[in-house]
Amino acid sequence: MNKISTSRSCSFGTDGIRAHADGFPFTPKALNALGVAIARWALDKYNKKTPGVLIGHDTRLSCPRIKNDLIAGLAQFPLDIVDGQVLPTPAVYQLIRDNSRFDFGIVISASHNPYYDNGIKLFDAKMTKISKEDEGVIEAYFEKMHNQELLLGSSPRGNALDVMWREAPKIYQDKVASYFPPNFLAGIKIVLDCANGATAKIAPALFKQLGAEVIAIANNPTGTNINEKCGSTHPEVLQARVVQEHAHIGFAFDGDGDRLMVVSKSGILKNGDDVLFLLLSLAEYAATKTIVGTVMSNQGLEQTLVQVNKKLLRTQVGDKYVAQALVANNLPLGGEVSGHTIIQNYMPTSDGIFVALKVLQAVIATNNWQLKTFDAYPQVLLNIPIAQKKDLSLPPLSIIITTYEKKIPAGRILVRYSGTEKILRVMTEAQSYELAHSVAQELAQELQQALVVNND
C-alpha cells in the first residue's frame, strides 16, 4: 500500500493533484482550504457574479467525504455548485462544455490507481484541462489559506450546495449515442470490463441502447474494489471472458473512464497504439497523414505508418501533451500506449466509451474482428532505483546510451527519469525480445553504476 504523504505542499502534477486518500491534502482542513483557493481562482478567472461548477467523481470509498469537505470551502463564496455524483471524467468535461450554466468542472478520482488513493483535477469549459498558470494561482491561494482556521460548518454563500444533477449520466449517455446510427451494434456480443469504476452503469446501458448484447464484468463497485484485478491495467479476466463467451470483442476501461484497452475475439490484447491504427481505417480519417503518439509509442507502429505514407509525431508522456500537439498541428487523432486516445473533432480529451464505439465502427466497416494492426517490436521496460539524478545528455551517461543504441540500429532506446521518484526508466525495442532484453539489462546496470553517489 502507498505511504501516506507527510508533505504540506498542495501541488498539481501531470494529471491534477493525487495522493493517498487518508493523507494530505485530503484532510478536512486542507480540502476546505483547497475549496476556498479554487473558488477565489474561479471568481478571478471568470469575472462573473456566480461562476458555475459541476463536480463528478468515481466510485472510491473516499469520494463522498472528499467532495463534502471540498464543497465546504467552495461554498464560502458565491458559486453555483452542482453535484453530478458518479460520472466518468470525460462526461464531466462534455457536460460543462455543452451547458452554459458551467464555467468549470472538478473531478475527484485517482484514475487507474487503487481505491486508497484519490485525486482532484479541474477542467475549464472552453479549454479542457486548466493551464499551468491557473494551477499556479490555485496553489498560491492554497498556501495563503491553509494556515488560517476556516469554519467548516459556517453558512455557505454558494446558492446550490445541495443540488444533485441526477439526470447528468443519462444526458451524457444520450449525447454519446447521438454520434452513432441507432441500433448499429445489433447482433454483436461485447464484453465490457468497467473496472468497478465510473463507467459501471453508463457503459453497459449505452452499448445496449445501441443494440449490442452486453456482458458486463467488474461492474459492481463496493468503494474498495475499483481497478482491483480488473480494468485497463489488469485485462487478463476480460481476455479469458471474451473467449469463453464467444464474444466478438471486449473493452476494458479504467476507474474514471478515460482509458481504453481492447481485446479481440481470440483474446488478444490491443493497446492504445493499436487503437490509433484501427481508427485510421475509418473513411473519415483516410486522408490523415499524421497522428500523434508519445515517446513510448511502439517503433512497429511508426514503421508501418511510413509504409503507408503516414507519419507518427511523438510527444513526451502525458495525454495533455498529446492534446497540445493535436491542437498545434491541427490533427485529428492522437493517444498514448496506456489507452488515452483523443479524437480531436469530438473532444480534446480522452473518452474511453466514445473511442470504443468508434473502434467498433472501424471494425464493422472492415470486418477486422481479429483486430489486425501492425507488427509491434518487442519492448522491455525496466525501472531502476538510483541514488541520484544526473543529466542524461552529458558524458559519461550520454556516451553509455549512445554505445548501446548502436547495438540495436533497427530498434530504439529511451532513457528517462521518473518525475516523482528516484527511478530511472530504461526502455528498449528491438526486432527480437532476446536482443531488447539483453540490451536493456546491460544498459540499466551500467547506468545504475554510473549514477552511484560519490561520497568522497
Can you characterise this structure?
Mean pLDDT is 92; it is low at 150-160. The strands form five sheets. Strands 1, 2, 3, 4, 5, 6 and 7 form a seven-stranded mixed β-sheet that branches. The chain is 33% helix and 20% strand. It has helices at 28-46, 63-74, 89-98, 132-145, 168-177, 202-209, 236-244, 272-279, 299-307, 319-329, 352-366, 397-405, 433-450; strands at 17-20, 52-57, 80-86, 104-108, 117-124, 128-129, 163-164, 189-193, 213-217, 249-253, 260-263, 269-270, 290-294, 311-315, 333-335, 341-343, 379-385, 412-417, 423-429. It is globular, with a radius of gyration of 23 Å. Strand 10 (249-253) and strand 11 (260-263) form a beta hairpin. The protein folds into four domains: 17-166, 3-Layer(aba) Sandwich (Alpha-D-Glucose-1,6-Bisphosphate, Chain A, domain 3), CATH 3.40.120; 188-268, Alpha-D-Glucose-1,6-Bisphosphate, subunit A, domain 3 (Alpha-D-Glucose-1,6-Bisphosphate, Chain A, domain 3, 3-Layer(aba) Sandwich); 271-376, Alpha-D-Glucose-1,6-Bisphosphate, subunit A, domain 3 (Alpha-D-Glucose-1,6-Bisphosphate, Chain A, domain 3); 379-450, Alpha-D-phosphohexomutase, C-terminal domain (TATA-Binding Protein, 2-Layer Sandwich). The protein is α/β, with parallel strands linked by helices.
The number of helices is: 13
CATH topology of the largest domain: Alpha-D-Glucose-1,6-Bisphosphate, Chain A, domain 3
Strand element count: 19
Distance between the termini: 36 Å
Structural class: alpha/beta
Strand content: 15-25%
Number of domains: 4
Helix content: 25-40%
Biggest sheet descriptor: 7 strands, mixed
Low-confidence stretches: 150-160
Quote the average pLDDT: 92
Give the second-level CATH assignment, the architecture of the largest domain.
3-Layer(aba) Sandwich
Radius of gyration: 23 Å
CATH superfamily caption of the largest domain: Alpha-D-Glucose-1,6-Bisphosphate, subunit A, domain 3
Tell me, what is the CATH class of the largest domain?
Answer: Alpha Beta
- Shape verdict: globular
